[in-house]
Amino acid sequence: GAGPIIIGQACEFDYSGTQACKALKEEGYRVVLVNSNPATIMTDPEFADRTYIEPITPECVEKIIVRELETIEQSGAGGKLVLLPTLGGQTALNTAMSLHRSGVLERLDIEMIGANAEAIERGEDRQLFKDAMIRIGLDVPSSGVAQTLEEALEIAGDIGEFPLIIRPAYTLGGTGGGIAYNRDEFEEMIRHGLDLSPVTEVLVEESLIGWKEFEMEVMRDRADNCVIICSIENFDPMGVHTGDSITVAPT
């Protein structure tokens, strides 16, 4: 689960997580749910075989995994315990990646499904994402990745002019990011963004304020089958957060 509903991590994660639980149970899987927010649909008893209302942290999830492995062993039931982090928002992704980096998943022989660690890294790491877009022939704004204020100032000098966009890595919904119109705002946002990024990394990007903004919701499987689930047009131009803009779907 995604935990409490906050800006950038809203009720759509409860809905998608609930649908995932239903789909997994229909396929005959035993579902163990972890969510720190009891005021959700997905924590209703009918959606999981076992529900933990516990903090979504690496330490807590590790204890739950160990307990479930012991339960499987004691019951003599076959099967394998796997981790599905992609329907719990940024909280679940960050927790899963922490367990991966610390070696817990490898040590306990837990596989990540939905998206593996490499795929999550490519989507969350600003430089890896930029490189992936360039490899498939998509144009991206001029940008650079910084882990210190000095590196960020150097990138700003290379881009050449304000305003500049700041995007911290491993955050969702614009958390810690923003638009800097001068050097003072830029330095303040960089410090704030580096503090909020779990990997102390921000992307400094040229501004595309005023451009028309469209969103495409795409699902793709490992066989490279793609389908556009929804196309969305923002009423306001880029520079206005999509959460503050009127949107029209389909375009």
Automatic annotation (TrEMBL):
Listed A to Z, the keywords are: ATP-binding, Ligase, Metal-binding, Nucleotide-binding, Repeat
Q: Where are its TM segments located? A: none
Q: Spell out the GO cellular component terms annotated for this protein, sorted alphabetically and separated by semicolons.
A: cytoplasm
Q: Name one GO molecular function term.
A: ATP binding
User: Which catalytic reaction applies to this protein?
Assistant: hydrogencarbonate + NH4(+) + 2 ATP = carbamoyl phosphate + 2 ADP + phosphate + 2 H(+)
Family annotation (SUPFAM superfamilies): Glutathione synthetase ATP-binding domain-like, PreATP-grasp domain
Entry protein name:
ATP-grasp domain-containing protein
Alphabetical list of Pfam families matching this protein? CPSase_L_D1, CPSase_L_D2
Q: Is the ATP-binding keyword given for this protein?
A: yes
Biological process terms from the Gene Ontology for this record are: glutamine metabolic process
Q: Ranges for the ATP-grasp domain?
A: 130-221
